[in-house]
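Preliminary data (for renewal application), pyridoxal-5'-phosphate complex.
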Amino acid sequence: MTLPTRSDLDAVPAYRQGRPAPAGASKLSSNESPHPPLPSVVAAVQQQLGSIHRYPRMSAPEVIGRLAERYGVDPALVTVGAGSVELAAQLIGAVAGAGDEVMFAWRSFEAYPSLVRIAGATPVEVPLDADHRHDLDAMLAAITPRTRLVFVCNPNNPTGTVVGAAELERFVDAVPRDVLVVIDEAYVHFDRSEYFDGPDRGAGLELHRRYPHVAVLHTFSKAYGLAGLRIGYAIAPAEIADAQRKVAVPFGVTDLAQAAAVASLDAEAELAIRIDEVVAE
Ligand SMILES: *Cc1c(COP(=O)(O)O)cnc(C)c1O
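Predicted structure:
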């Protein structure tokens, strides 16, 4: 006899990790940085190594404080996770369960369908248009009373297409206020199209400020080059951030990752040069 597992997991594909990148290469599918970590980041992690016998600080006070200051938001709205993929799972878990729908364009970030199914919710995939762009009108038309969350991956992984700021605002404005719009900006630093002004190029933060139903996902994995340490952050409406903290697996973000994130925020000028190189390539 085999042990029973949840029958709804039959629909969950195993995550397929792409081939490892050769040394020094840019791997654009997962957008790992081709550069080794900055010496200042390595030093910060090394300094933290002496305390790995302790559990990490779950409240991640330094990195959350820095991010709140950087974006001018209440620290209570900022959450960290073991990569933004964990935060995507938290956001889904915060709002959707059995019988609820979570929408995203397809193709888009490979993890969305599995994360939605793992939460017991129903993925609703809206095909990209002929130019591989988000079909925002079709997405709006696909919203039902069951829809709890809509992901907009911007720029979109894997097509690299961008929803412009004005277009995105029109979309957000048309989405009912009881549906959370999550703008996944993992690639935002590599985008060179015109956007709102701000410390990052993406429109997400500005829309979060203007609308009560918008959350933004950022990661230290891509532009900041910390893919191996697993740390990302979300900025979400207060009630959503509170619910995220409930569904999060405790101690997911190590103090090593927190220290590396803080050191990376200190080294943004250096990192910006590297990002420009990757964009040029
Ligand atoms: C890489 C990626 C993520 C997740 O990255 P983490 O390493 O988990 O922070 C999330 N969304 C998109 C679109 C990505 O490309």
